[in-house]
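User: Hey, my collaborator sent me this sequence without any context and asked if I could get a structure. I don't really work with proteins. Can you help?
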Amino acid sequence: MLANILEQLMFVTLARTICDFKSSRIRYLGYFLLILTLLPVPILMNKPDFCSKEMGLILQLIYVFGRIPAYSVLFEEFSQRVLYIFLLSQWPPQIYLNICKAFIKDYELCNLIAFSADILILFLIFIYIKRKKIESMLHQIIKSLPKRLYINILLLLFIAAIFVMGETKPDHEHYYKKYILPSMMGLIVFLFSIVKISISEIEKKTTIDLLSKQVENEVKYYEKINTIYGEFRSFRHDFKNHVICLRSLIESNEKENALEYINEIEGLSSVEKKQYNTGNIIIDALLNDKNDRAAAINTKIVFSGMVPTTGISNVDLCIIMANAIDNAIEACAKDTSEKPKEINAEASFRQGYFFFKITNPIYEAVEIKSNNTITTSKSDKDRHGFGVTNILRTVQKYDGEAELSADDNKFTLDLNLVLKPEIIK
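Assistant: No problem. I've predicted the 3D structure and written it out in structure-token form, which is a compact way to encode the shape of the chain:
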């Protein structure tokens, strides 16, 4: 029993270190409750005559589940983390006990060795964490990883311990009906749960990758805009002096010198010439940047129309147009010939709606499913539809509609969004 108490105290100390639990103001009550749950151990091990089956079951429930309220008091919370700690406290001693039984027949000695091994391992882990000073790193890892996954894994390990323990029981058939059969049902449930969590994590990772690329693009475009504004500010700073010099030359009837001075001023201005005039300076910069990238694969972006400056945020415009153009460029990059290619984009807004359409050539079979997801016939099928999810999410945000088509070796994305008057850039 003393080994059991030491094991639990060491376990609580390690749990507080790893999970960053606050020190409870009523921790002594928690320790009292924890020790109280261990008192049934001698009775359960010796099974005296006064201990009926019903009383034994009650003591067993207190021993197993009494730790939950004890941990909740010790850590001053009742949460998934506490449930995780509870489950983690259950299976290691049982696993060590099962291993010992393979070599030692004395049950009490096996029990003592199992708890001693658990105390030693917990102590070594605690010393390692303290020496390496990795408490903060462990806190961040514990916070970022899904606790549901850990709980399910621990439950599976606990069920595995029950199966192993059942092999050593003399009344195997009775033990099978009482513990192993319900555990098998639980095993099926937990397996489905783990599969569900795994799928959820994959979807989350895909979304994070999409959003990361989106943010990267947006930062890039805004940096480009900032550069353009910086060049304008620099030119404006010297503009007054240039006007003074020009006025002096004109007043002196030095026409040729004035024209030469104007040419020099044009040479000094490094402001990028506009290739596009959409009515939105940020989208102008975006198109310039994308067109430079498209030129590397012998492709040109042809834009017509106007982009609104109210009713939709610049960020959402970038999400739609950047992802659509990126997909089009990736599709054109699949062409192995040297033929020039065009990506045609059209934008307009009228009667409270924003319309955007982009068309690009395609060089592989593209299958568009009913939910507007894209699949291709090649192994890199996720690449062509990259960003479509973000586009559709943004369209939905503005109560709009999206239509995707792939006919006559051309891919077309056609969108319409409801402009929101309250959004002013």
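In plain terms: The mean pLDDT is 78. You can pass these tokens on to your collaborator as they are.
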